[in-house]
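My hope is that you will study the record closing this message with an eye to the fold:
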Amino acid sequence: GIIALLQLPPAVDDVMLAQQLAQEKQVLVAPGSYFGAPGTLRIAYGMESARLVEALERLEIGTQAHFQGRP
């Protein structure tokens, strides 16, 4: 599998966003602050392409919904 850290905009609570993505979009990511990298989301993937595409689409929708209306 592959692991990546996604950088979030300044002042975003990575723990809160990870919880929101899990609850609302059923996408599991780890807050980067758990790994000494606050302000990031840690994603790990090693699955067949169709499931990965679906998960990334839900991640995109979830993060877009979170950031709508933010300056």
